[in-house]
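EI: anyone free to look at a 355-residue chain?
SC: sure, send it
EI:
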Amino acid sequence: MLNASAVATPLRTPTTPAHRRLRTQFGAQPESSRRSTPRSSRKRTSAAPLTPPLPIGIVNVTWRLYRVTPLHALDYSERSLKRMGRALSAFLQSHTLRGSGVATHLPDSDAAHAHAIDSNLSASISTVLELAISDQDSPSLKIVVEQQDKGNWKPAVTLLLCSVGIDLDQRPKPEGDMVELPLLLTKGPSALLKLVFAWIQETFDTCVTEQHLHPSDLAWAVSEWCCADVDARAGDHRPLDLTYALPDVAQPDLSTISLTLDDSTVRNALSQLSGVEGEDAILTVMQDSMKEVFHLDLDSCRLARVSTFACLLAGSGKLKLLETDPLFSEARNVLQFLTFVARRNQLAQDGLAWR
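SC: here you go
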């Protein structure tokens, strides 16, 4: 990996309209995804300062992203949640005690690890209300599976099914007894997670799919969270880090290029972009600067990972929410954007237009 630090490098604005769009060589994103995306800047006054604190264990943790189709017959009552927790515990116990059963629910790559799962498992399911940014948001659902280790119960996997700002998209919600929680955050060993996925799919007649992010999704995140407000607390002034994946034909011994810019450099670049349209404008400024100063042409490279002041996102589907000024609740804004992406991608998979 090549790291090009541009902390003290002045950035230049693009000079032609063509330079104001990021040119991606690895597939096209649906045009509608650029026309309609939730803007967190529109919600800062509504989300702050009355929103409750974020639940413990949400930020500064690396999650893997999945998307989920609508869940059928999900009952939020306390009695039902306890019953589902017991059902999941029994499901995990039965499938980890009999090795042949595990293999039927896991790909071959994970079946070899199935016997390593301790059969002494206990699951709990609860609601999380603090992530909502609207009174129409469905409560998020938290699933925790614990394993007994030397007499103590410790979390083995955690899953968080989210619906953050879904009504603000102005898209219809599913009718009937279906509940839409399209975004799934997970952490823990994949073998045990896949067993939980199997239970979720069987219980709620739903489908769990890995959620990857297109380079244009990462570009949008950069445009939204590239730097904190000038009057934000000191801890929020984090550098912007961009990682590009090089084409295979470029240099066999060089797979990625990482660019790092400090907060003040990015803010100075933004001040030069007044009136410039396009969510990729800031990226184009950086690309042009790298080409001029370091002679690096990034036009043929794919944006693979971004680290902003609010979050770390990877195209492979990894997320890390970073702690920011609670007044602005940026974590909720990031989750709203990812909820939007999950719904959009699911509609595209189903062959439906996103208008």
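EI: The mean pLDDT is 77.
SC: 👍
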